[in-house]
From TrEMBL:
Residues annotated to bind DNA: 150-247
The protein's name: Response regulator transcription factor
Organism per entry: Cryobacterium serini
Keywords: DNA-binding, Phosphoprotein, Transcription, Transcription regulation, Two-component regulatory system
Molecular function in Gene Ontology: phosphorelay response regulator activity; transcription cis-regulatory region binding
Domain named Response regulatory: residues: 24-138
Domain OmpR/PhoB-type, residue spans: 150-247
Alphabetical list of PROSITE patterns matching this protein: OMPR_PHOB, RESPONSE_REGULATORY
């Protein structure tokens, strides 16, 4: 999916798909007042919105509606949000997912993210926050045309292709989620430079987490498992300063 932007009066430039059609978002929560409010905010962005109050209903709608992003409550009356996501992924959809969770424990966040979710907000949240996070997810999932003539970035034996969204280390393909890809791209565009958690949050999540830097640590650990596992490490922690990518 690629996106383009045109000006409107909402939260910054309007995001649409490359063909000009509206971005489709599925909102899944069993609180009707919440889905109504979110629908209103997202429609204000110019997006097409469908809602579901239960997990199975969400799966039915997702197969027919083919959303570009899903806002998904973890606690649902029939099957939980993690199961919904697993089934969506099993159907072959890599749709970015923003989890809503009333639980603020790190374990729940890690469970959601490892299940294939891309981001999360904890209740209570502001509508602006949800919209900002979704805009970030949609931008990151977009197969946008690269700025440079050569879409490939290479650091040592690691290569990232900005057009095809493929990553290779020493010729071996590495599968990354949209968020992992964006994090790696930021690191690779700044080799041998220490990037602070605040810089990474601002660039990769396009949103001020209010100090929730733990999400950076979680994603750095995901990347290490995929990029560095069984190889000379390229992602380095600079204690008290941040992270740096350098050739092995």
């Amino acid at each position: 999916m690629s996106t383009r932007e045109s000006t409107h009066t909402g939260h910054g430039p309007r995001l649409t798909k490359a063909d000009g059609s509206a971005i489709r978002v599925l909102v899944v929560d069993d609180e009707p007042t919440l889905t109504d409010l979110l629908s209103m905010a997202l429609r204000y962005e110019g997006w097409a919105v469908r809602t579901a109050g239960e997990g199975r209903q969400a799966l039915t709608i997702a197969r027919e509606f083919r959303p570009d992003a899903i806002v998904l409550d973890i606690m649902l009356p029939d099957i939980d949000g993690l199961q919904v996501l697993q089934r969506v992924r099993a159907d072959g959809y890599e749709t970015p997912v923003l989890f809503l969770t009333a639980k603020d424990s790190l374990d729940d966040r890690i469970a959601g993210l490892t299940a294939g979710g891309d981001d999360y907000v904890t209740k209570p949240f502001s509508l602006e926050e949800v919209v900002a996070r979704l805009r970030g997810l949609i931008r990151r999932s977009a197969l946008a045309v690269a700025d440079s003539t050569d879409p490939r970035i290479t650091v040592g034996d690691l290569t990232l292709d900005e057009d095809s969204y493929e990553v290779f280390r020493d010729g071996e393909a590495i599968e990354l989620t949209a968020t992992e890809f964006e994090l790696l791209r930021f690191l690779m565009r700044n080799p041998r430079r220490v990037l602070s958690k605040a810089q990474i949050l601002d660039r990769v999540w396009s949103y001020d987490f209010g100090g929730k830097s733990s999400v950076v640590e979680i994603y750095i650990s995901y990347l290490r498992k995929k990029i560095d596992a069984g190889r000379e490490p390229m992602i380095h922690t600079v204690r008290g300063a941040g992270y740096m990518l350098k050739t092995a």
